[in-house]
Specification:
This protein has 182 residues and is mainly α. The protein has helices at 2-16, 40-46, 48-52, 56-67, 91-103, 111-119, 141-158, 164-178; strands at 27-28, 33-34, 71-75, 78-82. It is globular, with a radius of gyration of 17 Å. The N and C termini lie far apart (39 Å).
Length: 182
């Protein structure tokens, strides 16, 4: 039964991938209508399952769609790559895309994404959810977990420990404020 479910899941991903490489974001089974909204964070997160199923063609098509919208910017004097969505640049989209690339062994493709995540540390050791514009910026706990995972995965894959101090500060702050100590 498990193999049947995995096969069905793979067919679902293949059937729900649009010509542009993105997935249909929402489908209303009652009306048969698809949403035109393509939440980029969920698009990238959605690709982790086909990746685990070995569906390289599906993942490659999504990565092609993501790469077509990636922007390179200078932030605090350093070159970073960011993924725009609805005029915002969410740090968890960058974290999930970094994880996707690292899972695929594309360690050299993530450096400017990793730099961008590191630069989002706030003075009190939290991470901003958005790159720009600053007026929309807020602190995010769930995105911080995704970023910590991406940075740790990057360090393990490459041996590059430049983010270890950032990771430790953010981890300590998250542990103090977000983890039940009982």
């Amino acid at each position: 039964m498990i193999d049947d479910v995995l096969t069905l899941a793979g067919r679902w991903f293949r059937n729900f991938q649009k010509d542009n490489g993105l997935f249909h974001y929402q489908y209303d089974v009652r009306t048969g209508e698809y949403s035109t909204h393509d939440n980029i964070v969920r698009q990238i997160g959605c690709a982790l399952a086909p990746q685990a199923l070995g569906m390289d063609d599906v993942v490659d098509r999504l990565c092609g769609a993501i790469e077509s919208i990636v922007e390179r910017q200078t932030y605090d004097g350093r070159s970073i790559r960011i993924i725009p969505f609805d005029g915002l640049y969410k740090i968890n989209a960058i974290a999930l895309y970094t994880i996707l690339l690292l899972n695929d062994g594309k360690n050299d493709d993530v450096d400017e994404f990793v730099i961008g995540m590191e630069l989002m540390e706030v003075d009190d050791s939290f991470l901003y959810l958005y790159y720009v514009p600053k007026q929309y910026n807020k602190i995010s706990g769930y995105a911080t977990g995704e970023v910590l995972y991406a940075l740790a995965k990057h360090m393990r894959a490459t041996g590059d420990d430049r983010n270890s101090e950032t990771m430790q500060r953010v981890f300590n702050r998250m542990y103090e404020t977000c983890i039940d100590q009982d």
